[in-house]
Amino acid sequence: MNLVRLKKPSPPKVSWGEYYLNIAKAVSARATCPRASVGAVIVSEQNRIIATGYNGAPSGAPECRDVGCFIVEDHCKRAIHAEANAVLWMSKNASEQAQGATIYIYDSLNRGFACKDCSALLRTIGVSVVITSKGGSSLKGDGPILIQDTSSSTSISFIELQKAPWENRL
Question: What is the pLDDT of residue 88?
Answer without folding.
Answer: 85
